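Still learning folds. Look over my entry:

…
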Amino acid sequence: TIKEIMGIIGQPLEKTHWIMDKWGYTGSACVPMALDDALETGVGPQPGDHVLFIASGGGISMACNVWLWV
């Protein structure tokens, strides 16, 4: 879960942004949708921030990457 991952990487839950409460499960589309929602609501990344994207699916599928926001 999001809470478990944040605990593993040692970051507070307040640094996360998710959209399942608004749109439900959207599969891999949730990553860009969550970024867009964060930017639209004014809580998105600021220049110089490192942004970690993590997505997982059924079975053992998982992907992650880190962006430097400019």
About this structure: The mean pLDDT is 91. The helical segments are 2-8, 20-23, 30-40. The first strand starts at residue 50 and ends at 56. Strands lie at 50-56, 62-68.
